[in-house]
Design brief:
The structure holds two protein chains of two kinds. Chain A contains ten helices and no strands. Chain A is mostly helical. Classes of the chains: A mainly alpha, B mainly alpha. Chains A and B meet through helix 2 and helix 7 of A and helix 2 and helix 8 of B.
């Protein structure tokens, strides 16, 4: 029961406390204006270059922007606690680490999903992108899966934040890597082979492919392979993140370096 | 005059050192737009049109300057507030305007790093050799972009003084600037109702001047307009800065606590 409480209640409190999403002065510019503008930017680039259609850029960039809350919220799991000087207290608590950190990821997945959906709906409204009504349920599921896998990468980043001081820089660098390598604006087949190979091992890539296929009329069955790979990568990064957290936590205790970075 | 120049130089040099050693302001401010420029270049490359690559290549070189200025300038005074030094700046005998202008010029200098980095990146990674008809005019246009962006940054920093989370505003200005200033898409391709907003930004004119000087045209008309628009922003920022500081002193609201 304690683990369940830590998972749900602890996760929610931590999320609310660390992010202050409740302030519209942060929420609106960061998670509404910016994703819409990124979508518009690349849709207009596509039009000017005569490459791709609006739907391609709307889906790619909306899902790409979902990575922002997923990466930054999970990074702040460590960085925010350190700034508030509560990291030591959290890590000396007897709470089991898996519910402690995974609980924090649940609201983040919902947040990432919301951001991506704001982007997709804005694309539909502003750019007149047509997504068939029958595609929406599977599209919603695809976005959930993609947000979850990005949150796995975010947890991994959170673990690295035990050793890196500049969490904001790290998050932005990873976001840019996802932008360039995951087929956000250039389909994987058009990327250089080595970039496509890297993209195959990053979250987002298969989620974007699946979402584009679904928006183009594909069924859940036709994208199930892509979704399974997206889930697999999410689980992989989550597991790596938890292992790394444990390792760095032990190292920090042994060498008294928790607050030194 | 000598004392003013000395103060400006000391302030500029100090701020440039601070910015250059910051991973966020020095490194990320160059890396982030460079990656977006990369994404734009990759899209245009699919069109296999050398003229389009020249177009986007020139814009990509300049777009990082917007990030360095717009994103960071909006939160300049908030950062001073966080550091507990805003009151000291306001209480100093040197006016706030004389402190902010060299600071935003230092931000523009980081933007110039970005120009060089993107230029080299395009050459090495994309094998894109930009054709520039007149290098002196091209350099004048780039420097004009830097100076007028500093003026715009000055206005942004002053207007955001009462905005507690101005960093979020700064971050949100990044993409609209890239959209509006004609870096990687022609301003004419935007909806007609939004184009006047583009022309009200000095960087749009600076970008047009950069393209003219690269294509063999005369950039002087665009440069003149760019300077005029930038000067209006600087004058507005000076006036507004004085009013806002007076108001903050009178109402004891500088700390926003």
């Amino acid at each position: 029961v304690t683990s369940v409480r830590i998972f749900f209640i602890g996760g929610l409190i931590s999320y609310r406390a660390m992010f202050g999403w409740l302030s519209p002065w942060i929420l609106f510019p960061s998670l509404v204006v910016s994703p819409i503008c990124q979508i518009l930017l690349f849709a207009y680039i596509g039009r000017a270059a005569g490459v791709g259609d609006d739907e391609f850029y709307v889906i790619g960039n909306a899902l790409n922007y979902a990575a922002i809350p997923c990466l930054f919220a999970m990074g702040s799991t460590i960085g925010g606690e350190r700034e508030s000087q509560t990291l030591g207290i959290v890590l000396t608590s007897p709470a089991r680490r898996i519910p402690l950190f995974l609980g924090r990821s649940l609201p983040v997945i919902a947040n990432g999903w919301g951001v991506a959906m704001v982007g997709i709906v804005a694309g539909v409204v502003l750019l007149d992108v047509h997504i068939p009504a029958s595609a929406w349920p599977v599209l919603l599921l695809t976005v959930v899966v993609t947000s979850a896998s990005c949150t796995g990468l975010g947890l991994f980043m959170g673990a690295v934040a035990l050793r890196v001081r500049e969490v904001a820089v790290l998050g932005n660098v990873i976001f840019c890597v996802l932008l360039v390598f995951c087929g956000v604006n250039v389909a994987l087949v058009d990327l250089p082979a080595w970039m496509a190979a890297v993209g195959e091992w990053l979250p987002l890539t298969h989620g974007i492919q699946a979402a584009r296929e679904v928006a183009g009329g594909g069924s859940l069955r036709s994208v199930s392979g892509l979704l399974m790979r997206e889930v697999g990568l999410g689980v992989l990064y989550t597991a790596l993140g938890l292992v790394l957290l444990r390792y760095f936590e032990d190292e920090s205790r042994r060498h008294a370096t928790l607050e030194r970075v | 005059m000598k004392a003013l120049l000395h103060q400006q130089w000391v302030c500029y040099r100090l701020q440039l050192k601070v910015l250059s050693t910051s991973l966020f302001d020095g490194l990320l401010a160059v890396f982030f737009p460079l990656m977006f420029a990369t994404a734009a270049l990759m899209v245009y490359r699919l069109a296999d049109d050398p003229e389009a690559m020249q177009y986007v290549g020139l814009g990509a070189v300049i777009m990082g300057m917007w990030t360095c200025q717009g994103v960071i300038a909006a939160s300049l005074l908030t950062r001073e507030r966080w550091a507990g030094t805003l009151e000291l700046l306001v209480a100093a005998p040197t006016s706030l305007s004389k402190i902010l202008m060299p600071t935003t010029l230092a931000l523009s200098t980081i933007g110039l790093y970005c120009v060089v980095a993107t230029f080299l990146w395009e050459r090495w990674v994309f094998d894109l050799r930009l054709e520039v008809a007149s290098w002196p005019l091209f350099l004048v246009s780039v420097l004009m972009a830097a100076v007028t962006l500093a003026m715009l940054g000055f206005l942004l920093s002053v207007t955001a003084v009462r905005y507690r989370t101005s960093w979020a505003l700064g971050a949100a200005l990044e993409y609209p600037g890239w959209l509006l200033c004609g870096f990687v898409i022609p301003v004419a391709s935007l909806p007609a109702w939004i184009q006047p907003l583009s022309w009200a930004i000095p960087t749009t004119w600076a970008m047009a001047a950069v393209r003219s000087s690269a294509n063999g045209g005369s950039p002087w008309g665009d440069l003149g307009t760019c300077l005029a628009v930038g000067a209006v922003y600087a004058a507005l920022a000076t006036w507004l800065g004085r009013r806002l500081v007076d108001s903050a002193r009178r109402n004891a609201t500088l700390a926003l606590t």
